[in-house]
Amino acid sequence: STPVGGLASIPLRDGSKVTLNTHSELRVALTDAERRIELKDGEAFFDVAKDPSRPFIVEAGDQRVIAVGTQFSVRREGAKLQVVVTEGKVRVEGRDGGTQMLTAGAILHSVRDSRLVQQKTLYEAQQALSWRSGYLTFEETSLADAIAEFNRYSAQQIVIQDPQLAALRINGKFRSTNANEFVELLHEGFGIQVKKTEETIALLAE
Question: pLDDT tens for residues 13-53?
Fold first, then answer.
């Protein structure tokens, strides 16, 4: 597990590697027949060692992501699931019995039995995983969505107090644990006013 703002790289006995993002928890069970990971909450990137005799299974709520040798991430927020594949193929299975094959560059968004798959370039898929190096990358991202990402990494939450700011589009690469630098750049670039307390960073229009 990792605390809020934490990042951890964990080697597994089978040669696979797991990178855990902020505020995440998983359990690992390796047997002679399979490699089973339960992602209880948060986000993890898996660099899976090839072993055709032992499938690598990530369980996230009612869904399973299955691979043999590949690289992919799984993010779980309640009933919401996101899978990003950067190498090889994975199979996603839902409680409804439906399956979805994903190849490198694919990004899957799922809520219970509904799934949306976007086939991106490998570069775009890698950008979605820039958190592994401690950064968040935004390309034409709404300020509301960018703030939602930043708030995963800090106990001090950013709050938009003027709704018209939510739709602003953000581009750039920012250190995930440095929200103060992010809001300072918002002030300089957009003229957004910033008010801070111990618990929140409020954003207001001029």
Answer: 999 999 999 999 999 999 999 999 999 999 999 999 999 89
Q: Is 53 exposed, middle or buried (0-12, 13-18, 19+ CB in 10 A)?
A: exposed
DSSP, residue by residue, the chain: ---TT--EEEE-TTS-EEEE-TT-EEEEEE-SS-EEEEEEEEEEEEEPPP-TTS-EEEEETTEEEEESS-EEEEEEETTEEEEEEEESEEEEE-TTS-EEEEETTEEEEEETTEEEEEE--HHHHHHTTGGGGTEEEEEEEEHHHHHHHHGGG-SSEEEE-SGGGTT-EEEEEEETT-HHHHHHHHHHHH--EEEE-SSEEEEE--
CA dist 55 and 66 (Å) reads: 7
Tens-place pLDDT, residues 151-184: 999 999 999 999 999 999 999 999 999 999 999 9
